[in-house]
């Protein structure tokens, strides 16, 4: 049992969006007494078929109850977007409170789903963070297998590989093929592998289009599918001008490192410290943690990266209007590299900001050339805690 950080306001109806396997249904069952909840699982074919044929049944069931539940849960509501019109009516006319979960914004958009115009707050649930795992957290395991809740209940490498491979196949079959999101599955399958391999890199749409055998607009639509199904997120390039930043290519990060490895078919490959591959996975893990913490703790930072004219990078920038940005350099090494720290200090002057962090696996916390050098988790807590 993990204590999730997600803490929605319970005075109002709300959505919980997130990829499959992040624990949305489990979270609800742990948060609310079963007697207070009328739970409708639309993943069950017979339940989905019942409400698809007779959507008005939802209203009849609720209003005919002698003792009305405090909450009505529609699990995976994107399967029947038109039910949201009834939800809207029940909220407005009868003050019924709903919890609405979903793993695909795309299906809601395609189904012309009524997103309730602010009558339901919106929250997201992600794979487990280091804080949520507590004593169960093990960095090397998270780099190899990710942090979906199910993974932490599996013991052997064989079980974990089987689960993640099944996850990838289920995504292709149920989110993409059955819903006919793309006309041809093979190019999208090829795209998934390439996109997973390039997770954390600046997107080169032209190169990916050539590798997949399609046009650039199709590749862009494929990335939009990943974002809509919460399989990943964009990390835009930083520029003080919003208009100019939109011209620069973003990076894209898959939401979970285990799923990324399954999609790129590298689950049988080990990661070795002091290698570039290990460094890339470590950087991705820390950025995923920043992304999740920023959302859960409602810090509202805009996350981005910055590439210099000379090809150097600032791994992560956290910014808000009228505030100096926070610059973060992420290294997987056990030692603090003063050369890299000095580079960050120089870039800090260019950005006119005193908020500079060098995060690594070193156990030291020191300040050098105006840069706070500390363990990565310490830095997370200082910035977002």
Structure, described:
The chain has 385 residues and is α/β, with parallel strands linked by helices. The chain has 3 domains: 13-124, Rossmann fold (3-Layer(aba) Sandwich); 130-270, Orthogonal Bundle (Arc Repressor Mutant, subunit A), CATH 1.10.10; 283-384, Trna Endonuclease, Chain: A, domain 1 (3-Layer(aba) Sandwich), CATH 3.40.1350. The chain is 43% helix and 17% strand. The chain is built from 16 helices and 13 strands. It has helices at 24-31, 45-53, 57-64, 83-94, 105-110, 130-133, 139-145, 157-177, 185-197, 205-212, 216-228, 242-245, 257-263, 276-296, 338-351, 376-384; strands at residues 13-17, 37-41, 71-75, 98-102, 120-124, 232-235, 251-254, 302-307, 313-319, 326-330, 355-360, 366-368, 371-375. The two termini are 23 Å apart.
Helix content range: 40-55%
Instruction: Write down the CATH class of the largest domain.
Output: Mainly Alpha
Strand percentage lies at: 15-25%
Q: How large, in whole angstroms, is the Cα Rg?
A: 22 Å
CATH architecture heading of the largest domain: Orthogonal Bundle
Secondary structure tally: strands: 13
Quickly count the helices: 16
Fold-level CATH name of the largest domain:
Arc Repressor Mutant, subunit A
Sheet with most strands: strand arrangement: 8-9-10-11-13-12
Structural class: alpha/beta
SSE sequence, one letter per element: EHEHHEHEHEHHHHHHEHEHHEEEHEEEH
- Principal-axes geometry comes out as globular
């Amino acid at each position: 049992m993990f204590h999730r950080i997600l803490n929605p306001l319970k005075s109002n109806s709300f959505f919980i969006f997130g990829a499959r396997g992040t624990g949305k249904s489990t979270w609800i069952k742990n948060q609310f007494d079963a007697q207070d909840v009328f739970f409708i699982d639309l993943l069950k074919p017979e339940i989905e078929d019942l409400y698809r044929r007779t959507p008005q049944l939802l209203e009849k069931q609720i209003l005919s109850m002698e003792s009305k539940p405090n909450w009505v849960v529609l699990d995976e509501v994107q399967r029947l977007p038109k039910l949201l019109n009834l939800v809207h009516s029940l909220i407005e006319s009868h003050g019924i409170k709903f919890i609405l979960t979903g793993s695909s914004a795309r299906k809601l958009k395609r189904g012309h789903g009524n997103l309730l115009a602010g009558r339901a707050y919106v929250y997201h649930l992600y794979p487990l963070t280091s804080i949520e795992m507590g004593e169960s957290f093990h960095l090397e395991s998270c780099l190899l297998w990710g942090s979906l809740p199910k993974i932490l209940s599996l013991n052997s490498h064989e079980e974990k590989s089987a689960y993640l491979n099944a996850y990838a196949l289920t995504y292709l079959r149920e989110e993409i093929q059955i819903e006919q999101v793309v006309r041809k599955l093979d190019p999208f399958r090829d795209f998934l592998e390439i996109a997973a391999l390039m997770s954390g890199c600046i997107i080169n749409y032209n190169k990916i289009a050539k590798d997949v055998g399609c046009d650039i607009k199709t590749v862009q639509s494929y990335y939009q599918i990943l974002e809509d199904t919460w399989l990943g997120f964009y990390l835009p390039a930083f520029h003080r001008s919003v208009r100019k930043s939109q011209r620069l290519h973003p990076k894209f990060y898959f939401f979970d490192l285990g799923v990324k490895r399954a999609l790129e078919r590298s689950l049988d490959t080990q990661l070795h410290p002091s290698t570039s591959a290990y460094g890339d996975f470590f950087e991705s893990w820390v950025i995923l943690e920043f992304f999740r913490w920023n959302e859960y703790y409602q810090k509202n930072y805009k996350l981005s990266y910055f590439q210099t004219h000379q090809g150097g990078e600032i791994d992560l920038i956290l910014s808000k209007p009228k505030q100096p940005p926070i610059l973060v350099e992420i290294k997987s090494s056990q030692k603090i590299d003063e050369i890299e720290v000095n580079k960050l200090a120089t870039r800090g002057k260019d950005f006119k900001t005193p908020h500079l962090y060098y995060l690594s696996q070193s156990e030291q916390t020191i300040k050098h050339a105006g840069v706070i050098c500390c363990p990565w988790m310490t830095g997370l807590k200082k910035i977002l805690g």
